[in-house]
Amino acid sequence: MGQTQAGLIEELRARGMRMTPQRAIIFETINQLEGHITAEEIFAQVQKVNAYISLATVYRTLELLQEFDLITPTNLGDSQTCFALKEHCCHHHLVCLQCGNIEEFSDDLFDLVRSRLEDEHGFQVRTDHMSLFGVCKACRGE
Fold first, then answer.
1. CA 73 to CA 130: how far, in whole Å?
2. If DSSP codes are grouped into helix, strand and coil, which group holds residue 26?
3. What's the predicted TM-score (pTM) here?
């Protein structure tokens, strides 16, 4: 990933977050795992380092990281929330409801929607990391 563990920890400290050894282990794990990861995947890796860190601690840390706008959640259709570091985001997913295929697409497709919502409704929409569900071209037989 682009941001080092030390860089992430420094950013969090600068924002006023207290750094505990458990949080440092969780941050390192998030930084090492690539792509979209679940709390359970983070927990499984953390347990290899420190078996005393609970799943609840992982969830609380993920909530803090979301509050600090450093990770973004999304659901890829399997009923589990996946997380990605903010630097990995600004892309979205097309999830096929038939075959389960997931395709990423760029955030810039939402530029017009964001602009119109702002102009017409005064609403600033966040499209950090979304999944759109439908049926892919292959499953439609095209």
1. 8
2. helix
3. 0.67
